[in-house]
Design goal:
alpha/beta, GTP-binding, eight-stranded mixed beta sheet, 12 helices, about 300 residues, binds guanosine-5'-diphosphate
C-alpha cells in the first residue's frame, strides 16, 4: 500500500498518457509507438532503455499484427517486467546468512536522501533482529555527521564518528572494527557526496575499500548507490559517474512519492545493469521498501 501511494504520481501520469496514446486506435501502429516512445521518455525511462522497449514491442507486433492497441498496457508490463527480471540474478537476500559483519558502503551525491536512507536501512535491519553499526564517513559536512547521529538514535543503533574533516577511510575502518568487536551483523558506512571531481571520488572510494579490506578481505559486500527519482536525467548521469568511480552493486531509488518520473527505476537499472534493491517512498523511517519487480510494475500501471 505504501508502494502504491509512493508511485501514485508516476502511475497517474503514465496511465493518463498511455490512455491518450491509444484512444481511438485499434492496432499498435507506428504512430502509437511514437507516442509510446514519448511517454517513456517523459517518465524518465531514458533514451537507450526506451528504444529497447520500443524495439521489443515492435518485434511482438511484427509477429502478431493483430495485437490490439488495448493490449499495449499488458504487453508493456510484460516487457518492463522482463527487463527488470534480467537484473534479478544479482538480487540476494537482504542480509545474507553467514557473513558477519555484512559491510555496506552507501554512495550518492548530496541531497539525494542518502542519510535518510541509511537511517531507514538501519531501522529495517534492526527490526529484523540484526545488530547494526553505522559509520559517519561523510566527514566533509558537519551536518552530515549530526544528521546520521540523529538517525542512529531514531533507529536505536550506534554511530561511529570522528571529527569533521577526518579521513573517511579512517572512519570506515573504525566502523568495521567496531562492528567486528561488537559482534554486529551489519555495518553501514556513509560516504561523502561530492561529485565535482571524479578522480577525487574514485581515490576516496578506493581508499575506503583498501582500508576495510585489511579487516575483511571481501568487504564491502555491497555498494549501494542512492539516486533521487525526481532529478530525472541527473540521476542517470550520477549513476554513470559513480559506477565508473567504483563497483556499484545495487541501487536505491528515493523520492518516488514526489515525482511522476518513476521510469528512472527502469532506465538506470537497465543501463547500469545493476539491480534495484530498495525504493524510498517518503521521509519517514518506514518509508523504504525492498524492490519487488512485480509489485513495482503492477503499481506503475495501476
Ligand atoms: P543526503 O544529503 O543525500 O544525505 O540527503 P538527506 O538524507 O538529507 O535527504 C534530503 C531530503 O530528502 C530530506 O528532506 C529528506 O527528508 C528527503 N527524502 C529522502 N528520501 C526521501 C523519500 O523517499 N521521499 C521523500 N519525499 N523525501 C525524501
Amino acid at each position: 500500500q505504501t508502494l502504491d501511494r509512493g508511485l501514485e504520481k508516476t502511475r497517474n501520469s503514465f496511465l493518463h498518457n498511455l490512455g491518450k496514446a491509444i484512444a481511438g486506435r485499434s492496432t499498435i501502429d507506428d504512430e502509437v509507438l511514437d507516442e509510446l516512445e514519448e511517454i517513456l521518455l517523459t517518465a524518465d525511462v531514458g533514451v537507450q532503455t526506451t528504444l529497447k522497449i520500443i524495439e521489443r514491442i515492435q518485434n511482438r507486433v511484427a509477429k502478431d499484427k493483430y495485437l490490439g492497441a488495448n493490449e499495449l498496457n499488458r504487453i508493456l508490463q510484460e516487457e518492463i517486467a522482463g527487463l527488470l527480471a534480467e537484473k534479478e540474478d544479482a538480487q540476494q537476500s537482504e542480509i545474507p546468512e553467514g557473513i558477519k559483519p555484512y559491510v555496506i558502503l552507501v554512495v550518492g551525491v548530496n541531497g539525494v536522501g542518502k542519510t535518510t536512507t541509511i537511517g531507514k536501512l538501519a531501522s529495517r535491519y534492526k527490526k529484523m533482529g540484526k545488530e547494526v553499526v553505522l559509520g559517519a564517513g561523510d566527514t566533509f559536512r558537519a551536518a552530515a555527521v549530526d544528521q546520521l547521529v540523529t538517525w542512529g538514535e531514531r533507529a536505536g543503533v550506534p554511530v561511529i564518528k570522528q571529527q569533521m574533516g577526518s579521513d573517511p577511510a579512517s572512519v570506515a575502518y573504525d566502523t568495521v572494527q567496531s562492528a567486528i568487536s561488537r559482534g554486529a551483523d551489519v555495518a553501514i558506512i556513509d560516504t561523502a557526496g561530492r561529485l565535482h571531481n571524479k578522480t577525487h571520488l574514485m581515490n576516496e572510494l578506493a581508499k575506503i575499500r583498501r582500508v576495510i579490506q585489511k579487516l575483511i578481505p571481501e568487504a564491502p559486500h555491497e555498494v549501494m548507490l542512492v539516486i533521487d527519482a525526481s532529478t530525472g536525467q541527473n540521476a542517470f548521469e550520477q549513476a554513470k559517474q559513480f559506477s565508473q568511480a567504483t563497483q556499484v552493486t545495487s541501487l536505491i531509488v528515493t523520492k518516488l512519492d514526489g515525482t511522476a518520473k518513476g521510469g528512472v527505476v527502469i532506465g538506470v537499472s537497465d543501463q547500469l545493469n545493476i539491480p534495484v534493491r530498495y525504493i524510498g517512498v517518503g521521509e519517514g523511517i518506514d518509508h523504504l521498501q525492498p524492490f519487488d519487480k512485480m509489485a513495482f510494475v503492477e503499481s506503475f500501471f495501476g
